[in-house]
Polyphosphate kinase (Geodermatophilus obscurus), 691 residues
Amino acid sequence: MPPTRAGAPADRYINRELSWLDFNSRVLELAEDDSLPLLERVKFLAIFAGNLDEFYMVRIAGLKRRQSTGLTVRSPDGLTIREQLALVTERTRDLVHRHADVFTKDISPRLEEAGIRIVHWGELADDEAKRLREYFRDQVFPVLTPLAVDPAHPFPYISGLSLNLAVQVRDPDTGAPRFARLKVPNNVPRFVSVGAGGTVDPASGATFLPLEDLIAAHLQQLFPGLDVIGHHLFRVTRNADLEVEEDRDEDLLQALERELARRRFGPAVRLEVAEPMDPAILDVLVSELEVGRSDVVHVPGLLDLAALWELYGLDRPELKDEPFVPATHPRLSEGETPKSVFATLREGDVLVHHPYHSFATSVQRFIEQAAADPDVLAIKQTLYRTSGDSPIVNALIDAAHAGKQVVVLVEIKARFDEEANISWARSLERAGCHVVYGLVGLKTHCKTALVVRREHGVIRRYCHIGTGNYNPKTARLYEDLGILTADPRVGADLTDLFNTLTGYSRQTTYRRFMVAPHGIRPGLVEKIRREARHAREGRPAGIRIKVNSLVDEELIDALYEASSAGVPVELLIRGICSLRPGVPGLSENVRARSIVGRFLEHSRAMWFANGGEGEWWLGSADLMHRNLDRRVEVLLRVCDDTAARQLQDVFDAAMADGVRCWELGSDGAWTRSGECDYQAALMAAAVDHAG
């Protein structure tokens, strides 16, 4: 915990774990919003559940790991680990029950009215039950493996996030009770169609039976000769945060592959059980899984509502948002004819705003044109996450086959994408690309691409610096910003950065970049303090920050100082905000809001009034310890006047009165307000500009 600044209140930070739960609560509010299309509400239920799973796998697992060391570590807001875990447990239980209530009491009845039903075995008609018995016999029964638990059979390993049945059986001859575990297979649809032939007819509706219900109805077939006396559904969450022991003398790829093999055996951090649960069975699970009673979450209704993505996939367009087709940036086409990205960038920078601007006809086309252009000599790119069938990776492979020098830094430590990234890295290597696996001790999180082209005997460099991954699928769902530029200063900076990433350069100063882990925090602190000086001396001052998370205490304290000096500070924070706005004498000039909607607000951008000579920065870094200290991140100074005005317009629209958002109060509570859909307005504007 940083030292308390003289006169600053000790409670000036909001706990980051509780702030994250507040964010997930905002997601849940969208599931509760009956003004949204029904299947969009189902989608937000699934997102909430998936978010909470990852929160336990990473954040709560990390707290428990630190607790196990016995160190008395306090969070910046002064809480011990035990106190944080207690508060998280209490808040999570409330959210889980609210989540279940929304589904069972509100959304399920509305789904049924729309012809989409989730039923239990006892509700099936005879012909439906007959068809599902055949389905069970042919598709499910062969993959089930009941595992006995007795002196000869130790308690089996329970994989993380799997659904399981704890089954109670009895020997009819001796009356002796027995216990068995049965895993619900994850390679069979969770919701089994009750329709004839297993088909779903969107016009006539859809009826589904949860897979665990189907299995439970046929338990006697799995335990012939025994009496089945009960079953209970449970689910375990395990620590999935990798701790790669990086050694400069060891191959990083091998170290990561070893750790990936260990991850599936991480300690349990949460036990979810369906209500009601037999106390004796719960005692067995708690003991064998080595979890505390406080780690047990009793869930009313269905477990694992992340599976609701299956229902969202139904072909029912009338129950979803209107489809949106991203527009091609107007500077990248002439009517229906695509323009050369290189020719366009020689005329000036292009700011792309996804998903409103098409990723496929901007960033992806930039890489594809570079791969096919005979005048391009080299392509250098960072890849943090990409899609399964990645056109970006395919273009890089084509470039290598065409004899171009292709250098790709694949961040194989990207959480939960490690195995996919290892696979892509090897494909790139086989194609002849130079592949670098990241730096020891750091994740390379920046989103950068450099194209080197020979034009009339002169070398020119073209660049892309963005806030989002090179992933065409998420580019349709995540809101991100990027600059395409031929600015030679940016090209020189990016060349220097790649030399640092691939060689032994220790460069820390750049022309148009701030680069973590050395440059972003001190650079931002200096700019924030510069605004305070401008305000005190009567010059124009102001700060605007848009990020996913604001946690770093040094930056928060600098913003408090700026506010106290009279600097107006506007924060647009999607997720965690540890700064407490609106506190008299500390942050009365700070305003913080969050927008959560159809698209995931993901871009990071910052503006400083700078005495009337305003400057915009954009890049990959959230204002968190991990980004500023343990990652390679890039912030780019936006020097193109048109791009800077466009960034100003985006921020003006987000902070306008009446926008549907959540405002953060000095008490740490988020309050929803406004009716104007900011994202819908941007969609309409993108279509108008394209037309």
